[in-house]
Task: inverse folding
């Protein structure tokens, strides 16, 4: 069939039978832009014979990810918010809290800053990039950081992974899903930390996780800013119906600041159950990483530890945990 790039109008002749049904985006070989791939899957008539002037070799097929052998594994992306709002703090302490509650957890860091392993005080020799490229087998790319807690590290090498994704003509958005899906059966939870903004890795995460947890800083967020990122979710849901904004996590709660309370009231009115109990501003949370410790290790009695325990109760739906 012939598809036309919506950006530069270049026509591409593709063999749709060779494109797996879950591939939803294509990259134009002319202008390099991505665009949604809308292939009618009903029994369509044979494609017209290619005209030699516009023929391009159909790219090699991308293998379809294996169906998860366990339906139980929950995939939670901590995503869609700006930098400095507590995403990494949340991903690490949520993962650590779930592990303390006896769940098997894989924490995946998709940020080039590689903060997650630093926060857990571990120095893996590789991580997500090496897993995807096959440089390391899963048992070496994934390292155990604590009891029940494993980590697939991020860091600078993710720049190489971004380039690898960029070079794919289509299906690039499924790169991480294809790497993680065969492994996830070993875990009850996969928690994915993301970088701020919309890079190819974030898009990949959004094509992998089913649940989104979005930290919003009560210090800086406004209703307007919040509306902006709800639009981002809606744009992803066009491609992936399975993804759900499950948790809105207010962070940096400061009881003294009135504007924060007003904003919290507003989002609770609209989003009800999705809004988690806020994480209070707590200096212990910012001190713990320097010691390579989670908040439960560094200051188990602090407000920060209490608030993240509450988050674990909310996510598991087990109100009696840690009592
Ligand atoms: N509730 C909190 N109270 C005080 N400091 C916090 C809190 N949450 C995160 N921090 C600190 O704020 C900074 C940004 O948090 P981080 O989790 O790295 O955000 P992000 O991943 O969204 O960029 C870090 O220095 C972190 O230690
Ligand atoms: Mg971060």
Result:
């Amino acid at each position: 069939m012939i598809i036309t790039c919506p950006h530069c109008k270049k026509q591409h002749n593709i063999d749709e039978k060779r494109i797996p049904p879950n591939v939803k985006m294509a990259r134009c070989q002319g202008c390099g832009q991505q665009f949604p791939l809308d292939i009618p899957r009903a029994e369509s008539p044979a494609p017209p014979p290619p005209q030699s002037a516009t023929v391009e070799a159909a790219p090699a097929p991308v293998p379809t990810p294996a169906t998860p052998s366990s339906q139980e594994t929950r995939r939670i992306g901590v995503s869609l918010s700006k930098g400095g709002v507590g995403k990494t703090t949340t991903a690490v302490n949520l993962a650590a809290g779930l592990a303390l509650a006896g769940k098997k957890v894989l924490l995946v860091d998709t940020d080039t800053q590689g903060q997650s392993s630093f926060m857990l005080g571990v120095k893996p020799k590789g991580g997500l990039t090496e897993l995807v490229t096959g440089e390391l087998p899963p048992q070496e790319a994934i390292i155990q950081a604590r009891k029940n807690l494993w980590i697939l590290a991020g860091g600078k090498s993710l720049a190489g992974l971004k380039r690898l994704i960029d070079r794919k003509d289509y299906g690039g958005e499924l790169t991480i899903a294809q790497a993680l899906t065969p492994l996830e059966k070993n875990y009850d939870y996969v928690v994915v930390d993301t970088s701020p903004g919309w890079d190819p890795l974030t898009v990949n995460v959004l094509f992998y996780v089913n649940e989104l947890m979005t930290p919003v800083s009560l210090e800086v967020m406004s209703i307007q800013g919040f509306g902006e990122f709800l639009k981002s979710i809606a744009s992803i849901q066009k491609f992936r119906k399975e993804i759900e904004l499950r948790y809105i996590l207010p962070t940096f709660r400061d009881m003294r600041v009135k504007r924060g309370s007003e904003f919290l009231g507003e989002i609770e009115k609209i989003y009800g159950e999705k809004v988690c109990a806020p994480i209070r501003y707590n200096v212990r949370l910012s001190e713990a990483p320097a010691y390579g410790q989670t908040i439960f290790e560094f200051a188990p009695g602090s407000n920060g530890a209490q608030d993240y325990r509450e988050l674990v109760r909310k996510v598991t739906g087990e109100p009696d945990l840690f009592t």
Notes: The longest strand covers residues 244-251. Residues 126 and 140 are 8 Å apart (CA to CA). Residues 83-89, 115, 251-252, 279, 281-283, 285-286, 289 surround adenosine-5'-diphosphate (ligand 1) (CB under 6 Å). The radius of gyration is 21 Å.
